[in-house]
Structures are given as structure tokens and as C-alpha cells.
């Protein structure tokens, strides 16, 4: 078939498709409701066929380029991602996320060890030799910690600021740390190991020092509420980073590229789950932990309950027989 | 440059051509995004200042959203383009050329923290220079790439002359070369145009200016003009 005849035969369809696609860029919702939207997949596949014909028959550049452009534009519309469904978020948080954490239990256990071992060692060590606190922290830092948890304060755990201000601060600070911990795991896991270890030393050091000087009461009362969500989220983000770095080192029975892509998917989901946990932690920390007037029994009771809740959720959530699959 | 084009076969059996975007336009898009976000933050600070310390917390939340969520939300809702990428005509797509979805976008934007590492995007720059598709580390792990969204216009600037049919049938790539010659002739010096046109004397039987005119006339015929 001659090129002119080919164009004359099909150019109406091409123009129609082109104008529909252009309208779609401007007004997506209205254009998708048009009658033509039902025709689109067939129309797109016919144009793909035309492009293959035009290439095969050696038609001129203009025709193939025009069809190529039409196909690229149509491909983007036909294969566009489905609209996000919000109920899947609930399903993911209830079932998918704990399942994913359990599937990566080796990395999670390693991350927990990297974080909790130095922390626990320091808490114990600082009870035996309190002067070691000065090796870990500068005196200015120690003064600041002591000021935050002075039993004489009306608000505990912070020097100043309202609840909302502290909520914003905790979200920005803690979630950024968790995200960076995950991302830095890509560097052969070194970044995640460093952040986990350093946070273990920092938190263990502060806890040990404050307990040793007799400020342990306000400190433990403050952290017991949000520690379940915050520390678990940090460990999970670190574990996500570790599995990314370990995949880079030892991809197993896969090529490194596809293995990394798969590990990236897993890591992103873990990071998103950790993000949700940190939001809860920040909320508790800003609006519950800071109330000074609560009785100790309530505080430690709620703290223990939250720990049980988090661990139970991670351990049982999404098992066969539970809802939300 | 031809070697940055990645051809991907679609399920329909035709190939898409994705032109990978290099470090420079992406850095420009990032600058546009950065400026936009700073402007939004500063404008929002004015009413937030009225709320006192609570406003401070809201400003922190806004900063968090602009820092971590902005790129993901834009890329998923605006068809793979943040506003800066839209200004520069760039787009994020998955490795198979389909539009980027939630998780790949989250991966590539979280791993931005690694690409940005030493100073300003040192790792990312090195990665885009090494990778054949100019991907930074986040793109490699996410399985995405950044492409030029606008197609190159073809056959637009060929000067109009009465069309002249070709004496032989030319192969598709030869036709393309002829049309591209006619397109770009205007950007070359007359001497260079003649030098190139004289290579085709066996086809045209002409030399110098007459050869140029005849090639452009053939190109007009190839483009389907009367």
C-alpha cells in the first residue's frame, strides 16, 4: 500500500486518538467519562499495529515518528497505575507489615542485637562506674539531659514547648532518622549498623547516667509510654537497611540487579510501616508521656500494655486465620 | 545522543523509545523543586507565626512533608513528574516504560539520602555518569529511570519545496537520514550542506546547490507533501 493511501485511510483514527489523549492531559476525569474511553484500548492496539506496519513497509520518518509519539502517549495511559485504595493501607498495617517483619526476622534480630546490646551494657555499666558518663558525653550535654529530666520540672522530658510543637519536632526528627537509617543501609549495611549502634550507645548512656544520679524516676516514667513504638520502629528501619545492604553483598541465587530491586520493595514497605509506628510514638510522646500528673501505676501499666501490643502485633499479625489478608 | 535511548518492547509488539535524562537537567529540576518548596515554607510560616509555639510544630510537620513526601506524592499523582521535572520536561518511569507507582517512587525518594551523600549529590552524580541509563542509586534499586518526556519534533522544519519522487526505493533508515538532513540543513553552513549533498551525487546526479535543493525536494516527497 502506498504511504499516501495508508495515511488517508487511517489518519482520522490517529487524529481522534491524539485529540482524546490531549484532552485527557487537560481534564482527566471528564475525558475518561466520554464514550471514546471505552474504545481506547482497541484503538490504541490498532495504532500499535499501524506503527509496526509503517516500520515494516519502510514508510517515511514523519509517519513512523507520528505513530511512535501516539503509541508512547497511549502506552502511558493504558498502563497507568491504578488509583490508590485506602482500605489497603489498613490491611497492610494490620497484616502485611507484621508478616514482612517476620519474613525478615534474621535482619530484625541482628538489628535488635546491634541496638539493645550496647544500650543494656551501658545502663548496667554506668550503675557500676558512673564516672564513665563523662567519657561518653560532654558536660554541656550532661547538663542538658539533667535539666530535661529534673524531678522538679512541671513538664518532664523537655525543656520548653507546647505539645503540638513537640509533636512536629518528634515527627520531623525521628522519622528522618528512621528513613536515613534505612537508606544508609544501602552502603553495604554500614550506615544502618552505625546508626543502630550509635543510638544504642546514646540511649543506653542517657538512661544509665540519669538512673545513676537519681533522676531515673522522671526518665523512665517519660519514656515508658512511647518506647514500645519508637524503639521497635528504629530497629525495624535498621533491619530494613541491613537487608538491603546484605542483598547487595550476597544476592543469593539471583543477579544483583533484580535482587536489589526486590530488596528495595521490601525495604520501602518496612520503612513505611516504621513511619506509621513513629507517628503513633510521636503522638504518645507529645500528648501522653509529657503529662506530669499521672500516677506511676497507670503510666507503667500503659507502657507495659503498649509493649505487649506491639510485640503481639508483630508476632501474630497477619497469620493464617486472622483477618485483613 | 543515540546511546542514551533505551528501546523497550511493549506487550503490543512495538518498541518504545525512552531517552534517558542526564545529570544536568535533573539537577535543574531539583533546583526548581527546592526553590518552590522553600517559597511554600516561607509563605506558610507567616500565618503559622500567629499560632506561637504550636505553629512551630505545624511548620515542622510541613517541613517534614516537603522534605520526604513531596516528591512521592507529585510523582504518583502527576504522572511521574514533580513540578520541577514538569518544568524541565522530565518524567520518572519504571524500567518497562510504564508510569511509576507508589513503592518504586518511595524507594527512589528514600534512597535519595544516599545519593545526596558527600556534599551535594556526589554519589548520585557518579552513578548517573557510570550507568548507561543515567540512573542514580535510588533509581537502580527502585527499578525506575528518568526520561525526557517531550518527544523530539520530526519533519517540522524541512523547508517547503515542490515534492520530487525518489528514483529508487530507499530503506527506512536511509529515508530517515535524508529527512533528517533536510531538517537540519538550516543549522549547517552552506559549505557543509554542499559537502554532505555531494556524497549523494550518484542518487541526485547534481552537485552543490542544485543537489541540496533536490535532496530537500525528495525529503518533501518522503514527508508526504504535495
Automatic annotation (TrEMBL), chain A:
Pfam (any one): SpoIIM
Keyword S-adenosyl-L-methionine: no
Keywords of this entry: Membrane, Transmembrane, Transmembrane helix
Keyword Transmembrane helix: yes
Residue ranges the record marks as coiled coil: none
Transmembrane portions of the chain: 107-128, 177-196, 201-220, 232-250, 262-284, 296-315
Protein name: Stage II sporulation protein M
Organism: Rhodanobacter thiooxydans
From TrEMBL, chain B:
Keywords of the record: Membrane, Transmembrane, Transmembrane helix
Cellular component aspect of the GO annotation: membrane
Domain RDD, residue spans: 21-143
Subcellular location(s) per record: Membrane
Ranges that cross the membrane: 34-52, 58-78
Membrane topology, as annotated: Multi-pass membrane protein
Predominant location: membrane
First and last residue of the signal peptide: none
InterPro entries, A to Z: RDD (IPR010432)
Pfam families assigned: RDD
Name the record gives this protein: RDD domain-containing protein
Native species: Rhodanobacter thiooxydans
Lineage: Bacteria, Pseudomonadati, Pseudomonadota, Gammaproteobacteria, Lysobacterales
Amino acid at each position: 500500500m502506498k504511504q499516501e493511501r495508508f495515511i488517508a485511510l487511517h489518519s482520522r483514527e490517529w487524529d481522534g486518538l491524539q485529540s482524546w489523549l490531549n484532552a485527557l492531559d487537560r481534564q482527566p476525569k471528564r475525558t475518561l467519562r466520554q464514550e471514546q474511553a471505552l474504545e481506547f484500548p482497541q484503538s490504541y492496539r490498532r495504532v500499535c499495529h499501524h506503527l509496526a506496519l509503517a516500520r515494516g513497509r519502510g514508510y517515511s520518518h514523519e509517519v513512523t515518528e507520528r505513530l511512535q509519539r501516539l503509541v508512547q502517549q497511549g502506552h502511558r495511559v493504558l498502563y497507568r497505575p491504578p488509583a490508590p485504595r485506602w482500605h489497603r493501607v489498613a490491611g497492610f498495617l494490620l497484616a502485611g507489615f507484621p508478616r514482612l517483619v517476620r519474613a525478615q526476622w534474621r535482619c530484625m534480630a541482628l538489628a535488635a542485637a546491634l541496638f539493645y546490646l550496647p544500650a543494656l551494657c551501658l545502663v548496667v555499666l554506668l550503675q557500676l562506674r558512673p564516672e564513665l558518663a563523662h567519657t561518653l558525653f560532654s558536660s554541656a550535654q550532661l547538663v542538658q539531659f539533667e535539666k530535661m529530666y529534673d524531678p522538679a520540672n512541671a513538664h518532664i522530658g523537655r525543656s520548653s514547648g507546647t505539645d503540638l510543637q513537640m509533636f512536629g519536632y518528634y515527627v520531623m526528627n525521628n522519622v528522618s532518622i528512621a528513613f536515613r537509617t534505612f537508606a544508609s543501609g544501602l552502603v553495604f549495611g554500614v550506615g544502618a549498623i552505625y546508626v543502630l549502634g550509635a543510638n544504642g550507645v546514646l540511649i543506653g548512656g542517657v538512661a544509665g547516667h540519669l538512673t545513676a544520679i537519681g533522676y531515673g524516676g522522671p526518665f523512665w516514667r517519660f519514656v515508658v509510654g512511647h518506647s514500645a513504638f519508637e524503639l521497635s520502629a528504629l530497629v525495624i528501619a535498621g533491619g530494613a537497611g541491613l537487608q538491603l545492604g546484605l542483598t547487595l553483598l550476597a544476592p543469593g541465587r539471583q543477579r544483583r540487579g533484580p535482587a536489589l530491586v526486590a530488596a528495595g520493595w521490601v525495604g520501602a514497605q518496612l520503612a513505611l510501616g516504621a513511619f506509621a509506628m513513629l507517628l503513633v510514638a510521636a503522638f504518645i510522646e507529645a500528648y501522653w508521656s509529657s503529662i506530669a500528673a499521672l500516677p506511676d501505676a497507670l503510666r507503667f501499666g500503659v507502657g507495659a500494655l503498649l509493649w505487649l501490643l506491639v510485640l503481639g502485633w508483630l508476632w501474630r499479625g497477619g497469620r493464617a486465620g486472622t483477618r485483613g489478608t | 545522543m543515540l546511546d542514551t535511548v533505551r528501546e523497550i518492547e511493549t506487550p503490543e509488539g512495538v518498541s518504545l523509545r525512552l531517552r534517558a535524562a542526564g545529570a544536568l537537567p535533573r539537577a535543574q529540576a531539583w533546583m526548581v523543586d527546592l526553590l518552590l518548596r522553600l517559597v511554600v515554607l516561607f509563605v506558610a510560616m507567616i500565618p503559622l507565626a500567629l499560632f506561637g509555639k504550636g505553629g512551630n510544630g505545624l511548620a515542622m510537620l510541613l517541613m517534614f512533608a516537603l522534605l520526604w513526601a513531596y516528591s512521592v506524592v507529585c510523582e504518583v499523582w502527576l504522572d511521574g513528574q514533580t513540578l520541577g521535572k514538569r518544568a524541565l520536561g522530565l518524567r520518572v518511569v519504571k524500567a518497562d516504560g510504564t508510569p511509576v507507582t507508589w513503592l518504586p517512587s518511595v524507594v527512589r525518594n528514600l534512597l535519595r539520602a544516599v545519593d545526596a551523600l558527600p556534599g551535594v549529590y556526589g554519589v548520585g552524580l557518579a552513578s548517573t555518569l557510570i550507568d548507561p541509563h543515567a540512573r542514580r542509586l535510588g533509581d537502580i534499586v527502585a527499578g525506575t529511570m528518568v526520561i525526557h518526556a517531550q518527544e523530539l519534533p520530526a519533519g517540522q522544519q524541512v523547508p517547503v519545496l515542490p515534492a520530487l519522487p525518489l528514483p529508487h526505493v530507499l530503506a527506512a533508515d536511509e529515508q530517515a537520514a535524508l529527512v533528517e538532513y533536510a531538517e537540519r540543513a538550516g543549522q549547517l553552513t552552506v559549505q557543509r550542506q554542499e559537502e554532505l549533498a555531494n556524497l549523494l551525487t550518484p542518487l541526485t546526479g547534481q552537485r552543490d546547490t542544485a543537489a541540496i535543493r533536490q535532496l530537500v525536494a525528495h525529503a518533501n516527497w518522503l514527508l508526504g507533501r504535495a
